[in-house]
Write a structure and sequence with these properties.
Arc Repressor Mutant, subunit A, mainly alpha, DNA-binding, 4 strands, two-stranded antiparallel sheet
Length: about 100
DNA sequence: ATTTTGACTTAAG
DNA sequence: GCTTAAGCCAAAA
């Protein structure tokens, strides 16, 4: 465990339903710190349990797929999201259709 | 304990 | 549309 904040991020990430995506800033806000988007990214990077924490459902503010060092990287992440039913617009996820509304 | 770094975001050129 | 700059946060060195 890294910190309470990070744990919260993992918890929220696990709540993201299949076929939906959330932005780093969104998770940060739900965790209590709207400006901790970067910290959210760190939490994903230091992700202790990838199968338990679907970090591939977390994208940048504009839907761009960033990071993801697992498997084949970005391509794999994109493919996974499409397989779950997330709407895609070129190389970016269509947040207008597939962004998780959170609580 | 201090500095550096990074899977962010928004604003400005 | 792309690049640069600045702001904020947490983890790693």
């Amino acid at each position: 465990m890294a910190s309470a904040f990070t744990e919260k991020i993992y918890e929220l990430t696990r709540k993201i339903p299949k076929g939906k995506v959330a932005t780093y800033g969104q998770l940060a806000a739900l965790a209590g710190n709207a400006k901790a988007a970067r910290a959210v990214g760190m939490a994903m990077r230091t992700n202790p349990d990838i199968p338990a924490t679907p970090c591939h459902r977390v994208v940048a503010s504009d839907g761009s797929l960033t990071g993801y060092s697992a498997g084949y990287g970005i391509p794999s992440k994109k493919k996974m999201l499409i397989a779950e039913g997330v709407a895609f617009k070129g190389e970016k996820a269509d947040l207008s259709l597939s962004q998780w509304k959170g609580k």
